[in-house]
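Task: complex structure prediction.
Instruction: return C-alpha cells for all chains below.
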Amino acid sequence: MDEFKIVEIKEDILSRNNEQAKDIRREMREKKIFFLNVMSSPGSGKTTLITEIINGLKNDYKIGIIEADLDSAVDAETIAKTGVKVVQIHTLGACHITCQMSYESLSALGTDGLDVVILENIGNLVCPAEFDTGANKNLVLLSVPEGDDKPLKYPLMFEVASVVAITKTDVGKIFDFSPERAVENIHKRNPDVPVFITSAKLKQGVDEVVNYLRCEIEKVKRG
Amino acid sequence: MDEFKIVEIKEDILSRNNEQAKDIRREMREKKIFFLNVMSSPGSGKTTLITEIINGLKNDYKIGIIEADLDSAVDAETIAKTGVKVVQIHTLGACHITCQMSYESLSALGTDGLDVVILENIGNLVCPAEFDTGANKNLVLLSVPEGDDKPLKYPLMFEVASVVAITKTDVGKIFDFSPERAVENIHKRNPDVPVFITSAKLKQGVDEVVNYLRCEIEKVKRG
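Output:
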C-alpha cells in the first residue's frame, strides 16, 4: 500500500514535469533557441565534448551553457575558458535536473539573443533519463572505459537519447571495447538513434557531432 | 509548499530505511555474516574487483553475491563463473537499493551458512549513497577514466564510504589522472577513509583490499 502511494507521488511529479517541459519548449521555440541536454555517467567526457562543440559552433551562433553539479564549480571553470556565457547550478544533492531547475537555470543564464543553450546534466546514467528538461534533443554519451554492455544495463537512458556519442575511442583497444557491439546494444534500446564514434583527444568524430547539431539548430531557426 | 511535502516524504522514506538497516545489521551480526555494499559509477570495475575479491577469499569463507541492476543479467553471469552463490536483482528502473530490496535480496540469496555477502549496487555515484543498505561496510570505487575530481563533484558518495578503491590505475598516464590528487580530494570529503590504489589487470593493490576485508570479516566472526 505504501509502495502504491510512492508511485502515485512520483507519477504526479513526472506528469507536472512533463507539462512544464512543454512550456519550456514552447518558449524556446518562440525565441528560436536550440536547447540541448547532455547526459552520461560521471567522467564520460561531457565537459570535454561540450567544449569541442562550443569551439565548433561559437563563430556562427551565440551559445549559453548551464553546468549542473551536486557541488563544486570545476566544470563551469573549464567551460568559461571558451569565452561563452556559463552558469553553474548546484542541485544540493539532487540526482537529476527537473524542469523547475531547468527553468530557473535558463532564467539565471538569460536566454535573450542566444541561439543555442547546452545543459550539462548531473553525471548519472539512471535518474536524469526520467526527467524531461524541456530540451529539444538529448545527447547521451557512452565512454569506452564504461564498457559496451552499458546500454543493456541502463535501458531508459538510451531509449530517451536523440543522439548518442561514444567517447574516448582512442583507448578502445586497451579496454576491449567493441564499437560495433556498443552500437548494436544501443540500437536494441533505440533502433534509429544516430550514433557518433568520437575521440576528443584525436579530434575524431567531433566534426560529425557538430554538423549534426548545426542541422538541428537550423531547423529551429527556420521554425 | 509542494517542495516541503516532497522533502518530508523523502525524510520519512530515509528514516524508515535507516530503521530497517539496523534490523538487517542485527540479523547479520547474529549470523556472524560480513555484509559489504559496493558502489560506484557505471563501468568503474565493480564486477571485476568483486571477482578478484571472491577469488582472494573463497578458499577460506563461504560467499554469496547479490547483483543489482536495472535490467540484464550480464554481471551475474560473470560472477557465476567464480562458483559462488549469486542472485540477480532487477530494480525495474529504481536508481538505488533500499533496505527493503536489500532484505528481499538476502532472503532470495539464502544467507544460512554464509560468512560474507557482497552486494553490487546500481552503477550510480549519486542516489545509492543516500540509502543505507544494512551493510557493515561501503566499498566505493573511483576509476581512473572518470577523473580525479569526482570526489569534489559527488561528495556524499565519498562521505559514506568506509573504504575507497581507485581502479584501472594501469591507464593512469593516458588519462592524466593523479592518484595523489584523487586521494587528496577523497580525504577532503572523508579525512580518515582508507584508500587502495588498484589495477585488476596488473593484479596490483587487490591483495591489499582482500587483506583489509579479511580483517573486517574476522572482526565480525569474533563478534
